[in-house]
Amino acid sequence: NRTVITFGTFDVFHVGHVRVLQRAAELGDRLVVGVSADALNVAKKGRAPIFNEAERLEIISALKVVDEVFLEESLELKRDYILERGADVLVMGDDWAGKFDWVSDVCEVIYLPRTPSVSTTGLIEHIAGL
Ligand code: C2G
């Protein structure tokens, strides 16, 4: 029984998000998703997400490929989250390539290619310009 864990903000949920979650789920038997807290986004990106953490948790937990969700409060806690959830593999999109290799002592780390031409920032800019 192989548990896969992944992390993300998943703000303004789009096809790039669903594809990375589907591909992550295929790498194991059970998919756990850490959804970034609003405060983590403010610290990381300098702005609050469009959808708040309760809404984003609700969206991710409704997906059939997702077995469990929790709130990711800090990037530095990644190893603790992996150990607490018993994850065997960490999956991230390749915009994070190399960034989480420091947890490879506790689990396998896999970076998947991102879906081209779609991003939350691009969607926000598109909508703002309509
Ligand atoms: N993603 C993708 N293709 C896109 C856009 C996003 O595969 N076109 C993937 C990202 O690579 C990531 C996941 O979707 O694996 C979530 O992306 P974001 O919401 O942008 O996540 P981020 O804010 O980078 O948070 O601990 C890590 C952070 O919480 C990751």
Key traits:
binds [cytidine-5'-phosphate] glycerylphosphoric acid ester, five-stranded parallel beta sheet, 130 residues, alpha/beta
Describe the protein's architecture and organization:
The chain is of the alpha/beta class and 130 residues long. The protein is built from five helices and five strands; from the N terminus they run E-H-E-H-H-E-H-E-E-H. It has helices at 15-26, 38-45, 53-61, 78-85, 120-128, and strands at 3-8, 30-36, 68-72, 89-93, 108-112. Strands 3-2-1-4-5 form a five-stranded parallel β-sheet, sandwiched between helices. The longest helix has 12 residues, at 15-26. The protein starts with a strand and ends with a helix. The mean pLDDT is 97. The structure holds [cytidine-5'-phosphate] glycerylphosphoric acid ester. [cytidine-5'-phosphate] glycerylphosphoric acid ester binds at residues 7-11, 16-17, 20, 36, 72, 75, 92-93, 95, 114-115, 118-119. [cytidine-5'-phosphate] glycerylphosphoric acid ester is lined by residues 7-11, 16-17, 20, 36, 72, 75, 92-93, 95, 114-115, 118-119.
